[in-house]
Task: inverse folding
């Protein structure tokens, strides 16, 4: 074995057929307390006289070795990188192939197989506790033929981490990636809301919160999303519904269990499933309940959104729900949705749907993903969530407390998280959100493993495009066999963006907003906005270095 290794930044993607010599070495970084700092070790086995001689062991030596965790980055098949009409050049590759994305935790022995003639990489985390004393800490890595650093040394590399003794401030960005409970039940073949299902859901919520997702999509009723008219998704409904003699009753015990689970995991906000169907608000979502002693479908595609019966049901439910959440002190931590992604042609239907509940939801956070600023300018939507390629319209309209989102349609120019994109295109939003005072981010796919019509389960390890959208759009975690999620480097890169935003916020507190904006503008080529930003990740690292240095000077 003739092993070459090199420390590189967490913004790299190491393809199997690349040359390690062309990877930019990064041997030192700084971080704040309470931050999980990440970098990578790229490795390449040039020669293997014995084709079976591919085993080695990674050893870590440092004063802070106990803070170091290591994952192996695995490649996944990508057949659909982006749309055929995509003119954007800021992709790593547009041809199908194997792309690095999946993180596999290594056990404590750090056993590693390094086949000859392919470039591999390890994701290194240093999980820095709050109130750390700070200092400069070398971390030495050695690859040896035996455990515990014994035997032949194949390769060595080192990294220097500077810990600045200032705590990363609490996250203020509200961040959601939609949790799909039906996908969890189908993939793991468990009954919905069985004890095992609850365990799996909690595992996924805990991982989400760890990665900065502090708002959890809460299925009060089965979400009316990504389902063709007349078709259904499996029932995942937290609210039990009863109808007797024209009066509605509700049981919130399952919702209470959900809330307790989320609170235990550190969730801050409860994002409620939509009250009307997607892209038009023309029908009621599927709602199951007890009527005349029989459990049956009460509302669905056959129910017009404006029907008197559904309007009466919905108003009765919202009164009880809001009262229930008020008693728990959680009503102001709820985010309500009317309908997902309405277009201009849906304006009247959306207005009709919202009028049914507008008075009951007055004073609450009601927001929807959309692209047309007309919904805001007319006063129909007070808290729009514009797609990131149309956000300039909303910035010009001076929308307060602005959110944004991206999905499969945002494939030209703007940030996104497709597997074929560089990680800098995912992480850049930290600086963008700071500059434009974005307070919330939404993404539809934390673990969407169905086809786009939600009628068939995909294998997320093989069908990374779920049949119809660019690979990486539909989910940011993979399902481990034990009911826990495996993270992607895209999820972790977005977490790094949130840490960048938190560091910029701390720097503003210490130095003032003008000084921080001046630092951003001095590092990034101008103009810098959501469509103009550097494609090279070195600028992001340079900005964090500058911001960390400004913080260090002030403390």
Result:
């Amino acid at each position: 074995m003739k092993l070459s290794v090199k420390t590189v930044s967490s913004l790299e993607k190491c393809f199997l057929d690349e040359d390690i010599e062309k990877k930019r070495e990064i041997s030192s970084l700084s971080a704040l307390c309470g931050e999980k700092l990440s970098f990578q070790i790229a490795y390449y086995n040039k020669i293997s006289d014995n084709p079976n001689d591919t085993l080695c062991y990674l050893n870590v030596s440092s004063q802070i070795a106990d803070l170091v965790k290591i994952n192996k980055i695995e490649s996944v098949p990508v057949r659909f990188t982006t749309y055929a009409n995509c003119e954007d050049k800021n992709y790593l590759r547009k041809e199908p192939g194997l792309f690095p994305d999946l993180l596999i935790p290594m056990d404590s022995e750090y056993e590693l197989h390094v086949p000859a003639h392919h470039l591999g990489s390890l994701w290194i985390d240093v999980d820095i506790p709050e109130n750390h004393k700070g200092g400069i800490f070398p971390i030495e890595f050695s690859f040896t033929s035996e455990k515990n650093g014994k035997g032949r040394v194949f390769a060595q590399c080192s990294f220097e981490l500077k810990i600045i003794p200032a705590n990363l401030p609490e996250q203020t960005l509200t961040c959601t990636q939609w949790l799909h409970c039906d996908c969890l039940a189908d993939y793991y073949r468990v009954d919905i809301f069985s004890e095992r299902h609850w365990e799996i859901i909690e595992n996924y919520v805990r991982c989400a919160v760890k990665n900065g997702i502090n708002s959890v999509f809460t299925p009060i009723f089965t979400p009316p999303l990504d389902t063709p008219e007349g078709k259904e998704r499996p029932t995942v409904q937290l609210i039990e519904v009863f109808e007797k003699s024209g009066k509605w009753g509700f049981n919130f015990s399952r919702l209470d269990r959900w809330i307790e689970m989320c609170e235990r995991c550190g969730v801050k906000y409860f994002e409620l499933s939509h009250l009307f169907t997607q892209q038009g608000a023309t029908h009621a979502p599927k709602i199951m309940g007890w009527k005349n002693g029989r459990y049956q479908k009460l509302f669905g595609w056959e129910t017009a959104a404006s029907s008197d019966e559904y309007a009466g049901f919905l108003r009765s439910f919202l009164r009880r729900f809001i009262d229930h959440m008020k008693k728990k002190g959680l009503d102001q931590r709820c985010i309500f949705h009317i309908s997902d992604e309405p277009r201009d042609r849906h304006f009247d239907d959306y207005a009709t749907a919202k009028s049914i509940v507008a008075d009951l939801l007055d004073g609450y956070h009601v927001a929807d993903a959309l692209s047309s600023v007309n919904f805001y300018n007319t006063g129909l939507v007070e808290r729009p969530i514009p797609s990131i390629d149309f956000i300039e319209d909303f910035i010009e309209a001076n929308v307060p407390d602005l959110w944004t989102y991206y999905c499969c349609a945002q494939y030209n120019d703007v940030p996104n998280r497709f597997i074929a994109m560089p990680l800098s295109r995912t992480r850049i939003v930290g600086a963008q959100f700071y500059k434009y005072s974005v307070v919330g981010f939404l993404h539809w796919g934390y673990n969407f493993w169905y086809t786009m019509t939600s009628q068939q389960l995909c294998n997320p390890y093989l069908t990374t495009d779920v049949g119809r959208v660019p690979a990486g759009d539909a989910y940011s975690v993979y399902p481990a066999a034990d009911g826990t999620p495996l993270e992607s480097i895209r999820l972790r890169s977005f977490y790094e963006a949130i840490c960048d935003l938190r560091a910029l916020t701390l720097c503003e507190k210490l130095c003032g907003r003008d000084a921080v904006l001046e630092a951003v503008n001095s590092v990034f080529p101008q103009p810098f906005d959501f469509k103009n930003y550097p494609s090279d990740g070195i600028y992001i690292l340079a900005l964090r270095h500058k911001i960390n240095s400004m913080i260090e000077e002030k403390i």
Remarks:
- The mean pLDDT is 97.
- The first strand starts at residue 3 and ends at 9.
- The chain is about 25% helix and 25% strand.
